[in-house]
């Protein structure tokens, strides 16, 4: 049995909710791949919870906007977490995207929003520590 490295494409299910924890790191190429994978998941509703992609320098805003537009065809809802992720949400479009400054706000929203059958991708740059959000969401679904 193949097991992906820690925090890379780890799939866990709680009830009827699937969490794809790909929180180890994020860059434009890996995020596109993860969103394509989310499209192929079994979830009825695809939710991308995306932290900032750091280390992109002066191109950061442009990349976040581009990937937000890319996400339009790959998920039903985008939840941006962090200062740069507001551009992901902007690229996706406000009706299907939400933006939160921190993981705690995003978690509160997810707890109210997630429903059985959802597939949720969680991804962000290493410094965003999106695995904390994945762990907290899994715990809330277990209770």
UniProtKB/TrEMBL annotation:
Transmembrane segments: none annotated. The keyword Ligase applies. It comes from the Bacteria. SUPFAM superfamilies: MurD-like peptide ligases, peptide-binding domain. InterPro entries: Mur_ligase_C, Mur_ligase_C_dom_sf, MurCDEF_CellWall_CoF430Synth. Keywords: ATP-binding, Ligase, Nucleotide-binding. Signal peptide: none annotated. Residues 11-126 form the Mur ligase C-terminal domain. One of its GO terms (molecular function) is acid-amino acid ligase activity. Gene3D superfamilies: Mur ligase, C-terminal domain (3.90.190.20). This is Mur ligase C-terminal domain-containing protein.
């Amino acid at each position: 049995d193949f097991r992906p490295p820690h925090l890379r494409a780890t799939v866990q299910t709680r009830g009827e909710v699937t969490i794809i924890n790909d929180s180890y790191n994020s860059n434009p190429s890996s995020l596109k791949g993860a969103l394509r994978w989310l499209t192929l998941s079994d979830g009825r509703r695809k939710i991308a919870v995306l932290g900032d992609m750091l280390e992109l320098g002066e191109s950061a805003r442009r990349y976040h906007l581009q990937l937000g537009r890319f996400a339009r065809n790959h998920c039903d809802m985008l939840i941006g977490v962090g200062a740069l992720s507001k551009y992901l949400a902007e690229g996706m479009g406000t009706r299907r995207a939400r933006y939160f400054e921190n993981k705690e706000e995003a978690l509160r929203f997810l707890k109210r929003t997630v429903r059985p059958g959802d597939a949720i991708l969680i991804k962000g740059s290493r410094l965003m520590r999106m695995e904390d959000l994945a762990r907290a969401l899994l715990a809330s679904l277990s209770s």
